[in-house]
């Protein structure tokens, strides 16, 4: 695997592949890699000729400085993991390399997708994500880029950005990878202590119960029921739970046939914030 820290050198390297009509797959990450990331890389390897992974903890998408400082940084281990799957290229730039001196986000209009859920509770988060993903796309110039559905709202927003800014890249959403006990894989899981880790699968268990209820109950009742389950839990505090239309991400009032729905949740386990979601069947 070749490691680049400078965008100019990476661009030159990749332009040789482009000149040979080879396709580039891209997996942007913030590091602390796990099996979920590796599954994205494997998907990219099946569909493209050369795969680039970026590890860059993007400061502008954190609304709390403390969260940025505490975000796990495990580059040595990330490199080992990338080598186990024979990744071709790692791009690991510094903050200055991406932002120069001006560490601020561009302002985006994602047609309202940015105001709900993560956008409501993490001010400026999606401007930060849009800014860095657009900058990385400009550097890597991928044919296809791969994102996990755990960050379903992020995935929708990136698709929207690509469409609105007419970027020449196909966005591929990949299924959520879970631990054996159902906890969605996340870099933040490494920050959980043993007791918190044992409690965290309650999130997915509750989502599955909500999915079952959705076939017979209306959304308002289920939202109240889920919030109550968490009120009773000694270690987990719910930030939001909603049932939304997959297309608009708006909370639903009544089920309509032909529409796809998803339940979304954000939960604090101590100070660690975890998110998850599940596709619902009407
Ligand atoms: O999902 C992530 O890890 C980040 O939001 C991303 C897409 C790499 C942008 O920093």
| CATH fold-level topology of the largest domain | Rossmann fold
Mean pLDDT equals: 97
Q: Uncertain segments of ≥5 residues (pLDDT<50)? A: none
Report the CATH superfamily of the largest domain. HUPs
Query: Helicity, in percent?
Result: 40-55%
What CATH architecture label of the largest domain applies?
A: 3-Layer(aba) Sandwich
Shape: globular
Q: How large, in whole angstroms, is the Cα Rg?
A: 19 Å
How would you characterize the largest beta sheet?
6 strands, parallel
The bound ligands are:
pantoate
Tell me the strand order in the biggest sheet.
1-4-3-2-5-6
What structural class is derived from the secondary structure elements? alpha/beta
* Total domain units: 2
CATH class placement of the largest domain: Alpha Beta
> In total, how many beta strands?
9
Order of helices and strands: EHEHEHHEHHHEHEHHHEEE
Describe this structure in words.
This protein folds into two domains: 173 residues, 3-Layer(aba) Sandwich (Rossmann fold); 94 residues, Pantoate-beta-alanine ligase, C-terminal domain (Pantoate--beta-alanine Ligase, Chain: A,domain 2, 2-Layer Sandwich). 40% of the residues lie in helices and 20% in strands. The protein is built from eleven helices and nine strands. The strands form two sheets. The protein has a six-stranded parallel β-sheet, with helices on both faces. A three-stranded antiparallel β-sheet has the order 7-8-9. α7 packs across α8. The radius of gyration is 19 Å and the shape is globular. 36% of the residues are buried. Pantoate binds next to β2 and α7. The site of pantoate has 10 residues, from β2 and α7.
């Amino acid at each position: 695997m070749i490691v680049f820290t400078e965008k100019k050198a990476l661009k030159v390297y990749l332009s040789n592949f482009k000149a040979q009509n080879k396709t580039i797959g891209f997996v942007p990450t913030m590091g602390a890699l796990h099996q979920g990331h590796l599954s994205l890389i494997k998907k990219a390897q099946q569909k493209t000729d050369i795969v680039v992974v970026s590890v860059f903890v993007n400061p502008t998408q954190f609304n709390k400085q403390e969260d940025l400082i505490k975000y796990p940084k495990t580059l040595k281990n990330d490199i080992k993991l990338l080598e186990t799957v024979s990744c071709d290229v790692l791009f690991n730039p510094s903050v200055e390399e991406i932002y120069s001196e001006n560490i601020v986000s561009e302002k985006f209009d994602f047609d309202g997708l940015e105001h709900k859920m993560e956008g409501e509770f993490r001010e400026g988060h999606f401007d930060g994500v849009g800014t860095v993903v657009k900058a990385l796309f400009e550097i890597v110039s991928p044919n296809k880029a791969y994102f996990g559905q755990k960050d379903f709202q992020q995935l929708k927003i990136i698709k929207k950005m690509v469409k609105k800014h007419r970027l020449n890249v196909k966005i591929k959403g990949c299924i959520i990878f879970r631990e054996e006990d159902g906890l969605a894989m996340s870099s933040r899981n490494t920050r959980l202590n043993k007791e918190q880790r044992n409690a965290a699968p309650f999130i997915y268990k509750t989502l599955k119960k909500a999915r079952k209820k959705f076939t017979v109950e209306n959304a308002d009742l289920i939202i109240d029921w889920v919030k109550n389950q968490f009120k009773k839990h000694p270690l987990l505090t719910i930030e939001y739970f909603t049932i939304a239309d997959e297309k608009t991400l708006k909370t639903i009032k009544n089920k309509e046939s032909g529409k796809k729905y998803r339940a979304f949740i954000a939960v604090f386990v101590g100070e660690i914030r975890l998110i998850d979601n599940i596709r619902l069947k009407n």
